[in-house]
Amino acid sequence: PEEAWARADARDLVWAVTRPGVMSPEQRRKFLAEAVLAPIEHLLIDERSKNILQKLRTNEPITAADRWAASQAAEAAADEYASWAASWAAAEAASWAAASQAAAAVAKAEDEDADASWASWAAAREAQARWLRNNFVLTDLNIK
Questions:
Q1: CA distance 10 to 16
Q2: What pLDDT shows up at residue 99?
């Protein structure tokens, strides 16, 4: 088991240890605060999201109202970004080419965005797996 722990694919390792019952509540809080949210803390601009991170760090209860408020803030930010990205892509495409060329440019941009998103996601998973290996030993977890 120790060899599998050391050599596990990042995605598989993060998936395995985040299953219900594997981490204690304290381990889960520490993982969420330090391996998942801390690397993106500088991107948290809404106080409701910062509140969740602070509560994770200080072991305060996170209420249903806290979760709802943070999720609403995240959805609003995602909607705003999607609207901006769509507007920018349309303006850029329209300025360079006719409608057929614009469609090709948008498709290419979507592919590039997808590639960048995948690379970013994979890098985050690698960092999370590294954090898990550095902060927990296999026997710290309830893996059967």
A1: 10
A2: 45
